[in-house]
Structures are given as C-alpha cells and as structure tokens.
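Sanity check. The docking grid for 2-phosphoglycolic acid depends on where the pocket ends up, so I'm generating a full predicted complex first rather than guessing from homology. Inputs follow.
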Amino acid sequence: MAKQRSRPSIIAGNWKMYKTAGEAVQFIDALNPLIQSSDKVRVLLAPPFTAIYPAAERAKGTSIVIGAQNMNDASEGAFTGEVAALMLKEAGAQFVILGHSERRRIFKEDNGMVNRKVLRALEAGLQPIVCIGETREEHEANKMEQVLKAQLVESLAGVTARPAAQLVIAYEPVWAIGTGLTATPEQAQKAHAYIRKCIEEQWSATAAQAVPIIYGGSVKPDHAKALMEQPDIDGLLVGGAALQPDSFARIVNFEQSIVTSKG
Ligand code: PGA
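Predicted complex below; grid placement will be based on this.
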C-alpha cells in the first residue's frame, strides 16, 4: 500500500531528564549540518524545561522545532515547582508531549489529568503530542484495543473535531519503551490503524486523515525505515537514540530518503 503523504512525517526526540542547556545548544549545532531539511519532515526536539529557551533560540532559522516534555494543567497559580503552558510557549516551545507513560506510571497521571493538559495546551497554542499505549500485562491479555480506545477517548474528552486535527498521537507500547524491545512494523501498523479508526468514530474522517500518529518505543536507526514504511505510521518518537546527534540524524535522514523516493 502506498504511503499516505497528505500528513507530514514527524521525527521527534524526547530527551527525558538528559542534557543541560549548554549540552542542548551543542547538540543543535552538531545536528543541524547532519540533517537534510525538507518541508515534508518535521524534526522535533523536547529538551528539559531549563534548556527550552536556549535551544529554541539556537534552533531559529533551522528546520528543528523545540517543544516540552510536560506542563501543568492550570493556567497559573500556587503550584510550587510547576510550569504552565504560556511559560513554555513564551520560552519558544511549539509543542508539548503529554501523557508519556513515565508521567502516567511514575507521577500517577491519569487520563483525566492528561485531558486537562491537552485542553490547556490547545488553548495556549501549543501542539499536544498525546501518548497512549498498553502495558506488557495488557498486551499479553490481548487488551491493546480496549486500552488504546479508553486512553484516546478519555484523554481527548471535550476536544472538538477541528482542534482534534491539530493533535499528534504517539503510540508508545509501554513494554517497548527503553527496553530494547520494539514493536514489529506489523504490530505497530495494526495499532496505528486501530487508533485512526477510533479517531474517525469519535471525531470525523477528516480528523482521522489529518492527525499524524507516531510510534515510540526503542526506535533505533536500524529499524526506523521499516516502521516508517507502514501506511499509518507518520513518524517516530525517539528516546535513547535521540541523545546522540549522529544516531538521531540517521533516523531523520532515513525518513527524508523515503519521502524523496516515494513522495
Ligand atoms: P526509547 O524512549 O526510544 O528510549 O524507548 C521512547 C520514549 O519514551 O518516548
């Protein structure tokens, strides 16, 4: 099946709690000459909060877009240690990763919390990358579809069709994150097609066709291409392999070559 090209490809790096502001700037200087820029591929990087502003300043004039890994669900207030959507936006963030499984598991974020953050991010003009994915136990109990649907519907409650089309969904099977176990391209494609069907049922066929669905979980340069060739995989959310400019550039450039040869 020919790859759907109406959606831009997205290669996103999630740095988690790695890299100081200085290291982030050095990374951008090293990455930029290694990647080919194209309007068909969006290259996203999510550094820790403290590196967002310097990274966004350094990325100006390049094809690299900077975003955040999390935010608070309130617009402002007495929430010691928290960061609000508008603060991120003003620092230069253009997107925010929400509901990552590490946030759900370690910081006990549930779908209701993710939903409040999604609504707040959209209000602030930050593009939410909403992460969903089943655990190993749920996977082994054949509950993938049930879990994905509940996470999707509950995390996006109250989001109407037009803003829904501005989201990015990241399918990140929890059993694949940081474990070295990647979903096979076929497994990931099946999950992505199912997510797209849920978006169509919940919002509209137009939204389902517009929303990029990206895959995350132990993505390495060697299997990026096979994943990206699947018709419903529009991009990759990369953790460990996004910490080195050369491995991240290899993933970006693989995708560029697929776009160039197929597009
Ligand atoms: P990983 O992380 O590539 O290191 O598995 C992916 C993620 O957590 O987004």
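Relevant for the grid: The mean pLDDT is 93.
Also worth noting: Residues 14, 172, 177-178, 216-219, 237-240 surround 2-phosphoglycolic acid (CB under 6 Å).
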